[in-house]
Structures are given as C-alpha cells and as structure tokens.
Design goal:
This protein is of the alpha+beta class. It contains 7 helices and 12 strands. It binds 2-oxoglutaric acid (AKG). The site of 2-oxoglutaric acid (AKG) has 10 residues, from strand 7, strand 11 and strand 12. Keywords: Signal.
Length: 291
C-alpha cells in the first residue's frame, strides 16, 4: 500500500516538475528530477520552533514560486562538473550537499535563545546595500523584529540579522556548520549567519560568488545575470516587489527563481543579481567565496 502511494506521489511530482519546466520554456536539467527534502515532509512537521505562523497561515503573505534554476543532487555533481557548468556561468540549487544535522539542532529557536539570547547582535537595514545598523540582544531581535513583515513597511525600515557577528559565541556556533563541498580556485570561504522573519528578505543586489543554505524555513530566491540589471526600487522590500510589481510581469526574461527548502543550497556566480524572500521564519548561512 505504502509503495502504491509512493508511486502516485512520485508521478504527480514528476508531472508537476515537467509542467513547470515546460511552462518556462527551459531545457530540462541534465539529470532526472531530484527528490527534494520537502517533497515528502510537510514544512510544518518540524520548524525548529521558529514558525510563529504555524497556527495562522493568513499572516504568511508570500508563497513559494516555480523553480526555473537547475536543481542537482550533490551525489551526481562532481567538483569538476560544478566548475565546468555552474561556477562561472549559472546559478544552481544543490540538494544533499552537506550534512548539517548537528547545526540544525543547535539553531532550534529554544537552543539559540537559551545559549545566545542575551548576546548582542548587529542588525542591518534590509535595503539594497544595507546602510543602517542597529545593536540589540538576540532575544529582543527574536521577540520584536521577527514579526511577519507588513506590506506597508519599507526595506530601509526593516532590520535584518545577517552577517555581522563579532561575538565569540556566534563565531563558535559557525564552527559547527559544514560548508558546501564545492570550491572556486583561488577563493576562500567566509561565513555569514542569518535569522529573519516571514515576509522579510533582501532586495536585489550583487557581489562576489557564494552559496546560501536555508537551515530552517523556506526562502524564495530571484536571480538575474550581471548584464541584465533588474528594475527595482532599493528601498522597497522584496515583499512589496513580489506582491505589487512582479504580478505585472517578470521584470526580465532572463530572471530565474526557486524556493529553497531547509537543507538546500543555492550557488550564485560572481556579480549575479539576487533578491531573497523568507516564506517562513528562516535560519540561513551564506558561504561567500573571496579571492
Ligand atoms: O538570505 C538572505 O536573505 C540574504 C542572502 C544574500 O543576499 C546573500 O547571501 O548575498
């Protein structure tokens, strides 16, 4: 009986994936469809204690979208193939890259709050290029800043925990993160840790290449090549852009997007534009690759 249900669910998912690819008129990725973490596990089965929206989904303003980025399983993607196909050319979603089970356990809401609740964190305003900074305790951030993002709040008024962690305990937490098993010649990894509320995100920006993994929650990514700058207002949030501008039509033919499930990685090549939107409360780590 279980195997019959499995077969039905698998064929529905394959059909959905092929339908999505057809809809976007893109060539299918070279590998058969990759089974992704949440294909069989509902997002609310374990949210690490982060999902304040679990009982009221009307507060969840954004939803996952289609996936037009190649999705590859790390098992079938060697370092050589990564270099030849993606490293300098195109983004890719990688499933099954590193085992971050222990890091996932350490970053449950209750663990982080009891361990680091009173430590200071530096927030950045969530507009393009993040100008403004604010220092608060991690507990204050969780209780006051992680509420669902309102459509009325601008990006420069939204404060986001991502990147600045000078506190030794935060650095020691990151020692337990297993970085993605792919590299760029002549580049070294540098980690940034983030926690953010539902509906928040970062508007379009670009920088050097890197990976970003979602540890808890789902995050929607939008990407565009270096020579195709998207049209956006740097002080408007990704939520405002998604709900008010995106429905008028994609800003660019060449824009790609995908929603990352927990444990999945996106790789963005050098100078690719990208914007993010946290569907759920999210815990995430970026591995920036610097020359
Ligand atoms: O994950 C996010 O919300 C922001 C990540 C990002 O923009 C980056 O890694 O450059």
């Amino acid at each position: 009986m279980i195997s019959i249900i499995y077969l039905i669910v698998t064929s529905l998912l394959v059909g959905h994936t092929l339908g999505t690819l057809h809809h976007h008129n893109r060539k299918p990725p070279p590998q058969p469809p990759v089974t992704r973490f949440l294909d069989f596990i509902l997002p609310d089965s374990d949210d690490g204690g982060w999902d304040v929206l679990a009982d009221d989904s009307s507060l969840r303003l954004a939803a996952p979208g289609p996936c037009t980025v190649d999705v590859r399983h790390a098992r079938d993607l060697t370092q050589q193939q990564f270099l030849e196909t993606y490293a300098y050319n195109a983004p890719v979603i990688i499933v099954g890259a590193s085992d971050n089970k222990d890091f996932r356990a350490l970053t449950r809401r209750s663990s982080l709050l009891s361990w680091l609740g009173e430590s200071k964190v530096r927030l950045s305003s969530a507009n393009t290029y993040s100008y403004d900074k604010r220092d608060v305790t991690f507990s204050t951030y969780c209780h006051q800043h992680m509420k669902p993002q309102s459509l009325q709040t601008l990006a420069n008024e939204t404060f986001y925990l991502f990147g600045d962690h000078s506190h030794p305990q935060w650095l020691s937490l990151l020692e337990d993160y297993n970085i993605p098993p792919y590299s760029l010649p002549g580049h070294s990894p540098m980690l940034s840790f983030g926690v953010a509320g539902p509906g928040s995100g970062v508007p379009f920006h670009f920088h050097g290449p890197g990976f970003a993994e979602t540890i808890w929650g789902r995050k929607r990514w939008f990407l565009a090549p270096p020579d195709a700058a998207p049209i956006f207002n740097p002080n408007r949030t990704t939520l405002q852009w998604l709900l008010e501008d995106y429905p008028k039509g994609p800003p660019l033919e060449s824009m790609l997007e995908c929603t990352l499930n927990p444990g999945e990685l996106v790789y963005f090549p050098d100078r690719w534009w990208h914007a993010t939107l946290n569907i759920d409360p999210c815990v995430f780590v970026s591995t920036f690759l610097s020359p």
